[in-house]
Amino acid sequence: MKVILASDHAGYAYKTIIQKALMEEGYKTLDLGAHTIIPTDDYPDYAVIAAEALLQQKGDRVILICGSAVGVSVAANKYKGIRAAVCHDTYSAHQSVEHDNANILCIGQRVIGIDLAQDIVRTFLKARFSNAPRHIKRLEKIAALENKNMKEDKINQ
Known about the structure:
This protein has helices spanning 12-24, 43-55, 70-76, 90-98, 114-126, 133-149; strands at residues 2-7, 28-31, 61-66, 84-86, 104-108. The chain has a five-stranded parallel beta sheet, with helices on both faces. By secondary structure, it is an alpha/beta fold. It has six helices and five strands, in the order βαβαβαβαβαα. Helices cover 46% and strands 15% of the residues. α4 (90-98) links the parallel β4 and β5. α2 packs across α3 (70-76). It has one domain (2-156): Sugar-phosphate isomerase, RpiB/LacA/LacB (Ribose 5-phosphate Isomerase B, Chain: A), CATH 3.40.1400.10.
């Protein structure tokens, strides 16, 4: 599995630690920044490049980190086919994949400790979509909402 990682300044420290741990565990990673701490950078910029990279199939899943996780989640979810989940516990991390087929995990460096963050990342990456009919039906409803309310993005044209 290839994991895309991105963060703003508020998630930079965790991104660095998590990427190192993932590489040690055998994951391939693609670090899309930030590559240094830039206090004036903006989380939507990193959410955009990560979501676009995922849609371009440059990786299998994404880990986005900012201060709270909310900002990167809101920005990433503006793309069709992106299901970015804010998870600050392991239950939500596996449930987001198994039931909702989440493809982006959003965590907040200012919300949880690094040990829990690493457990959440591992749980998210090991989880698999259930393919249960009820979950497929729900994802079809989400896709219908996207098709109704979102213009086709430039990546999928």
